[in-house]
């Protein structure tokens, strides 16, 4: 097909495995570090692959120790951990479901035990399950999507806040679908819209404490979630409709998270950045 971007491919499990993708997403930072997160400690949920992996490795290059939270993708997580260690930083691997509040509490507890502090929380874990008809969305799917994509953000923020102080940052992953909708991802898009409201509301609550809360709304990015979500034809065409005529790579999105996490964004809170290949949206 004339607009094929990547080879057709599918995966039969969520949120997908980067080891099974071809070509592999580009995650390594594209420039030398400058110490923008020197001596910081960060948690990245969904940090094993995709955007989370690129963010974690970039944070390490900029000087942060990183805790990677992942669901079950052990091989992907190990590759990310090796990349962090290659940057001279520590990687703490924490496997579990962010939809479980007890697990989220334990994540933060282990980070404090390992590193003694916490400076940056990146809420990034997500799942999506396309359905052409809203009536096909089962109560179980609706519940699980909200538990991962929204409840997990609440739980992680609640667990982290006792350890965050002035100058700390929370960065949430929303999506372009929060702004333009997605007919086949009604429940997923709904969670992403809620994350925008969560970001704006929490930023106002925490401003007086000097804790900044922002978000990133990626467009079509080449991550394991794509072949784990769509059929082979859609995967092959993924990103072709954007003004830049291609999907973005994780390492093209990660700098948005770095900017919002570091002091470069010291006067920015309650905002959303839009690395989406040129799509103009409101908000």
Automatic annotation (TrEMBL):
Family note: Belongs to the short-chain dehydrogenases/reductases (SDR) family.
Residue segments, region Disordered: 1-34
One GO MF term: oxidoreductase activity, acting on CH-OH group of donors
CDD domains noted in UniProt: SDR_c1
Upper classification of the organism: Bacteria, Pseudomonadati, Pseudomonadota, Alphaproteobacteria, Hyphomicrobiales
Name this protein carries in UniProt: SDR family oxidoreductase
Compositional bias per record (Basic and acidic residues), positions renumbered to this chain: 14-23
Pfam families linked to this entry: adh_short_C2
Entry-linked InterPro entries: NAD(P)-bd_dom_sf, Sc_DH/Rdtase_CS, SDR_fam
Organism: Devosia aurantiaca
Biased composition (Polar residues): 1-12
Sorted UniProt keywords: Oxidoreductase
Top-level lineage group: Bacteria
């Amino acid at each position: 097909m004339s607009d094929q971007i990547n080879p057709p491919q599918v995966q039969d499990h969520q949120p997908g495995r980067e080891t099974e993708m071809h070509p592999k997403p580009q995650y390594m930072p594209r420039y030398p570090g400058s110490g923008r997160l020197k001596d910081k400690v960060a948690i990245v949920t969904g940090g094993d692959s995709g955007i989370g992996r690129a963010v974690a490795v970039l944070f390490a290059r900029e000087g942060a120790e990183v805790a990677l939270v992942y669901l079950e993708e052990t091989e992907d997580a190990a590759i990310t951990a090796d990349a962090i260690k290659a940057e001279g930083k520590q990687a703490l691997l924490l496997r579990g479901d962010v939809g479980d509040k007890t697990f989220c509490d334990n994540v933060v507890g282990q980070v404090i035990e390992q590193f003694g502090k916490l400076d940056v929380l990146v809420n990034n874990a997500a799942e999506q399950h396309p359905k052409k008809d809203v009536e096909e969305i089962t109560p179980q799917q609706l519940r699980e999507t909200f538990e991962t994509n929204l409840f997990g953000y609440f739980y992680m923020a609640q667990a982290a806040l006792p350890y965050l102080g002035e100058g700390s940052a929370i960065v949430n992953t929303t999506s372009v679908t929060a702004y333009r909708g997605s007919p086949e991802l009604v429940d997923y898009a709904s969670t992403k819209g809620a994350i925008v409201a969560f970001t704006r509301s929490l930023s106002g609550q925490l401003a007086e404490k000097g804790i900044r809360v922002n978000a990133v709304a990626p467009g079509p990015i080449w991550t394991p979630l794509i072949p784990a979500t769509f059929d082979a034809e859609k995967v092959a065409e993924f990103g072709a409709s954007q003004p830049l005529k291609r999907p973005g790579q994780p390492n093209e999105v990660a700098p948005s998270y770095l900017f919002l996490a570091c002091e470069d964004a010291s006067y920015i809170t309650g905002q959303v950045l839009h690395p989406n290949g040129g799509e103009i949206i409101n908000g």
